[in-house]
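Appendix B, record 7
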Amino acid sequence: MADRGVTGVPRLLVTQAQIARVVAVFYAGVRGHSQLGPVFGAHVTDWPSHEEKIVRFWSNALLSHRGYDGNPMAVHRAAGNVKAEHFAVWLAMFDAALKQELPADLAGAWSVLAHRIGRGLRFGLEPACGSGGVPKL
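Structure tokens (predicted):
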């Protein structure tokens, strides 16, 4: 999908090249990771296309580009093998990629947004009730 333009003010002063590098470094680590590798490998058959999609996601989130129109919550729920506990590992690996590829202030700012998104996804995957049927409040 081609970039459909910019709709607003960027959240961070990050470049497309930086976004692409962070995504590439992150997924290189994921593919070899003992816990996350099999989770992603069960669904991702075309890594270059997946990484391009995630670059569009972050370009939308960080730069207000309109090139991504997916629904991450629906995708993660439908996967069936993505669990709430995977997000702590995911975020630690993502933070490591950010720190490796970006200046500290930029890495930190992007990490804050990634953790907010991760919390939302994790919350959306957690069961609504405990084993006794009582809602977790």
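Remarks on this record: Helices lie at 16-31, 36-41, 47-63, 72-79, 86-101, 104-125. Residues 13 and 94 are 18 Å apart (CA to CA).
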